[in-house]
Amino acid sequence: MESYFQLRQNNTNVKTEIIAGISSFLATAYIIVVNPTILAQAGMPFSGVLTATVLVSFFSSVMMGLYARNPVLVAPGMGLNAFFTFSAVLGMGVTWQVALGAVFWSGVVFLLLSLFNIRTMIVRAIPRPLRFAIAAGIGLFITLVGLINAKFIVANPATVLGVGALTPALLTFLAGLLVTSILVVRNVKGGILLGILFTTLLSYPLGRWWATDLDPLISWQGVLAAPDFSLVLELDLVNSFQLAIVPVVFAFLFTDMFDSISTFVGLAEAADLMDEHGEPRNIQRSLTTDAVATTLAGLVGSSPGTAYVESAVGIEAGGRTGLTAVVGGLLFLPFLFLAPLLSMIPAIATAPALVLVGAFMIRPVTKIDWFKMDDALPAFLAMVLIPFTYSITQGIIWGFLSWTALKVVTGKRKEVSLALWIINFFAILALML
């Protein structure tokens, strides 16, 4: 273990790596509940998605540790699961089986791009302000989903959107949001997960002590059960391999790729995990692992897997090698058998977590030069159109097209690369489909 993970060379030891792995897991474990909650709204069984979430998180994190030897956990990504449910399935009318097929094909393409190193050209083609804006826009979208799940934001015929009535359910959400925020601010390990558990306990009296439309919000279904493998190989590979699904595949590929790259770069810079060339350590192997995670997700029944920025918690605890990821990955396994217990957690209990994840994801906007308007306007459009159109795809498309149009008419055509012109072609094609 010492020689394989090069513990001494990285100024760490087995004890430190184990503690770091546990820390990263606690920061990431909320996805075990949140991912099934979101994908269940696409018509998928909660227990089946939970099993798929655990499988993807376990296998991919362990692969990251053993193959890429980086202290980064991999699990189904926030934003990607929102796109799967609300844009692809509910928005475009694609069945969840076809959406799983699109996840698989995006993973295959990502894997090929990683193996042949074509990703470098694509990364350079996407303007940095747009990358930051899209990440922030997805964060706003996730926050909107959380507020809607909590019925804090409701439909209003007069104003399109409005604030919900102050019911016991909404008060429970607000209390859960406050407590979860306090835990996060105080840097409590597993704060988001503890917030979900706290809000679940608060939700129990709803429909019992008060008359609400959430009765019964929580029903006891036991604790242990065999894993639900009903979603394994349920993807539709044939119908997902057609021109009409290209925008879905591209959106999965784009979001997954840049989310992973930005995560690896950020974590590597923060923890000084750079190679001799000044690039993130083992970046090609790390991205290959990420691509395998997405391909696996399509096969077992989940939205795409991606590297988790919450791994920074473990890195701050001293994790520097792949042993951290192996420990964190192994900790996902017991949850294969806890579907009945976890299915008791209502959507209102995960809503505070969604709101706070949105707060984390909006940070990149500080890197945009808001005084350079030919950069700022396309970035702004991309960021706001994602939540306002309830479509990640639309935000990405109009961000690309507006960037290109402004650069061309202001005499800065050289800032639009050939690769971006090709991406624009697919963006326009997506609007016509």
Written overview of the protein:
By secondary structure, the chain is mainly alpha-helical. The protein has one domain (about 1-360). It contains 19 helices and four strands. It has helices at about 1-5, 15-30, 30-40, 45-70, 80-90, 95-115, 120-125, 130-150, 170-185, 190-205, 245-270, 285-300, 310-315, 320-330, 340, 345-360, 375-390, 390-410, 420-430; strands at about 75, 155, 160-165, 305. Strand 2 (about 155) and strand 3 form a beta hairpin. Helix 6 crosses helix 11 (about 245-270), helix 11 (about 245-270) crosses helix 12 (about 285-300) and helix 17 (about 375-390) runs antiparallel to helix 18 (about 390-410). It starts with a helix and ends with a helix. It is a multi-pass membrane protein.
